[in-house]
């Protein structure tokens, strides 16, 4: 049954196609996970640009959808049993979309849990640690005279890259076939370029990671999704 989006967020970001999944996001590594998934899965959606400024993510309308004031978030007017569902946390959204579409999350129990394992690896390790690396290497933390934090996150980024590089040995993708684990992991690996941190983390010396990221971004759906919602001019 087609529903009409009924949520306070619609007052600030109105749906023009309310029968579609509504995506509230910004093209960061966490944000593009979901636009990539939607494009890969062929699910109809309407993107809304939610900037990282407090005026957007801390607005009452956005907080009504995600009290943690982080992108991305979605509303699916045709959720389980035809009822509207609202979700935040990119990992949870990826699992939901994979189950809704029946794509990119294996139905084989062993492969399914291995895929979820690597998705959690990104959520709990790769994303938070690389985000801290960006803060202390490129952004405000780079001005700190004490190098302790910067060195810690450079070292942790190197360790995590080595874990991914080892997992990719003899594989094109993280777990067997291309999956939501890749949609989660590859954008964060690519973030090292934005942070200007490839050299300091030894990225280019890795055996498998650079080719993996290039392979990921060569996918047409990824290329379409990497700037959805489009950044402001």
UniProtKB/TrEMBL annotation:
<dbReference type="InterPro" id="IPR010987">
    <property type="entry name" value="Glutathione-S-Trfase_C-like"/>
</dbReference>
<feature type="domain" description="GST N-terminal">
    <location>
        <begin position="18"/>
        <end position="105"/>
    </location>
</feature>
<dbReference type="GO" id="GO:0016740">
    <property type="term" value="F:transferase activity"/>
</dbReference>
<dbReference type="Pfam" id="PF00043">
    <property type="entry name" value="GST_C"/>
</dbReference>
<dbReference type="InterPro" id="IPR040079">
    <property type="entry name" value="Glutathione_S-Trfase"/>
</dbReference>
<dbReference type="InterPro" id="IPR004046">
    <property type="entry name" value="GST_C"/>
</dbReference>
<feature type="domain" description="GST C-terminal">
    <location>
        <begin position="108"/>
        <end position="233"/>
    </location>
</feature>
<comment type="similarity">
    <text>Belongs to the GST superfamily.</text>
</comment>
<dbReference type="InterPro" id="IPR036249">
    <property type="entry name" value="Thioredoxin-like_sf"/>
</dbReference>
<dbReference type="InterPro" id="IPR004045">
    <property type="entry name" value="Glutathione_S-Trfase_N"/>
</dbReference>
<dbReference type="InterPro" id="IPR036282">
    <property type="entry name" value="Glutathione-S-Trfase_C_sf"/>
</dbReference>
<protein>
    <submittedName>
        <fullName>Glutathione S-transferase-like protein</fullName>
    </submittedName>
</protein>
<keyword id="KW-0808">Transferase</keyword>
<dbReference type="Pfam" id="PF02798">
    <property type="entry name" value="GST_N"/>
</dbReference>
């Amino acid at each position: 049954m087609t529903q009409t989006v009924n949520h306070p967020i619609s007052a600030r970001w109105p749906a023009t196609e309310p029968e579609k999944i509504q995506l509230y996001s910004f093209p960061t590594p966490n944000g593009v996970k979901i636009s990539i998934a939607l494009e890969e899965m062929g699910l109809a959606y309407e993107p809304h640009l939610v900037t990282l400024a407090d005026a957007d993510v801390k607005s009452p309308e956005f907080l009504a959808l995600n009290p943690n004031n982080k992108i991305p978030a979605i509303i699916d007017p045709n959720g389980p049993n035809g009822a509207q569902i609202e979700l935040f946390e990119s990992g949870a959204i990826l699992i939901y979309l994979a189950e809704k579409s029946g794509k990119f999350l294996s139905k084989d129990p062993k492969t399914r849990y291995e895929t979820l394992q690597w998705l959690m690896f990104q959520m709990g390790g790769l994303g938070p640690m690389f985000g801290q690396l960006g803060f202390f290497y490129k952004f405000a933390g780079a001005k700190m005279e004490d190098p302790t934090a910067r060195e810690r996150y450079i070292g942790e980024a190197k360790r995590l890259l080595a874990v991914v590089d080892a997992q990719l040995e003899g594989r094109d993708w993280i777990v067997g076939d291309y999956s939501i684990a890749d949609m989660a992991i590859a954008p964060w690996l690519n973030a090292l370029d934005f942070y200007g941190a490839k050299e300091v983390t030894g990225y280019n010396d890795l055996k498998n990671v650079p080719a993996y990221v290039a392979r990921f971004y060569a996918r047409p759906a990824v290329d379409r999704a990497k700037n959805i919602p489009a950044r402001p001019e």
